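job 3f2a | input accepted
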Amino acid sequence: MKKMRRPLILEAIKKYAARDVARFHMPGHKGLDEFEEIFNGAKTDITELSFSGNLSSEKGLIADAEKQMAEVLGSFAAHIVTDGSSCAIFAMVYAASKRGSKLIIPRISHKSVYNALKLFKMEPVFLPCVEKDGMLIQDVSSLGRILNKEKKAAGVLLTSPDYYGNVPFLEIAADETRKKGKLLLIDGAHGGHLKYAAPHLYAGEFADAWVDGVHKTLPSLTQAAVLGVNDEDLDEDIAEGLSIFRTTSPSYPIMASAEFGVLFAEWVGAEGFRRVADLADKLIDGAAGRKYKFVKTADRCKLLLDCPASGLDAAALVKYLEKHGVYAEFSDGRYIVFMLSVCNVKEDFDMLRKALIAYRRTKFKKAENVGNRPFIGFEPTRVTTYTEAVNAPYDLVLPVNAEGRTAADNFGFFPPCYPVITAGEAFTKELAEALVKADDSFGVKDGRLKVVRNGQ
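job 3f2a | predicted structure (456 res):
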């Protein structure tokens, strides 16, 4: 079996952690044994020292690690991000703002995309989505027409894969944007593994710039991400954006884990991801799977259980699974989504299989509702532009007073954390009430909704 590439940052910080040294530098815990007992690995938590490089420097340990990662990803550049994929989104939209005042996005874009548009006063142009199996799928077939119409658009920012594992036709998007000389940016936060699991679906094969949220699907610590760039000219603006939004005190363990995740995934290769996907297939095709309705998407590392189609209440099943030691990524009221990685082992699937079989033997709760799913495909009426609405004077109103009023912010449910209604669109009574009533909504403040002040 081939050897794994040397994880440069990890080797350096582990070497330092093993030494008996006097730490007159940050962080304040000083790597004490007592602190190490509480937070395992704390001794590797260091700062910029003579040997450890600097995240903003073009030379040194971190720069060398990023060059090796770019080689693995096949990109012009690879930037380690310790602030999560959202920081990388801000850097990409910052670069886009220098090339146009609008950005074409699907409505299912993560809330960080909308926040970045708000900050840079860019107007979103919505790419159509079509509903399939209760999910919104990005439809790029109309992208050429939209690009012809929206001359001020810097390009398009797609989400691929989405939270459910759906992947749009990236070949079409790449072809259309390049014909028009526009950017193709991709929020690939959930797709870092696709470089190895399904290269033909990987964002980096098509995009000018993209983010891999490596902590989501690769063996990396939470908040670890990698921003890949294929365009040399664009990289200058991307780097400038990162210098604005990225922390100046990056976590070395997180940086090391970002590098490790990429190198480890290359090492295990397609075979490693095929193994875990095969385990999922065996679950679906076995005794447990035949009693449930599973839905497959393009990303084989997403396992979706359709609860209403299985005659089950999603919330009750999630509660039962957790009681029996099985924790899914999320449930949206219809689907329970299980996220897989090369680190899942056969025993994980055995626990899930046994729990699913046992649940069918209980007096389980039947399907009664599908949570917030009625708002899938909801198309609010646009009253004013996004940029006008987010910058307008506003009032905070109770839901009973929100009907017909214009949203001054973005509102939605988590998961999957994209807005159901965006700034500049009109509230309906049903949506306003659902947002305030839900425990998992965002945008609501103290039971009130932010609306554009009347007369503005």
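job 3f2a | The chain has a mean pLDDT of 95.
job 3f2a | closed
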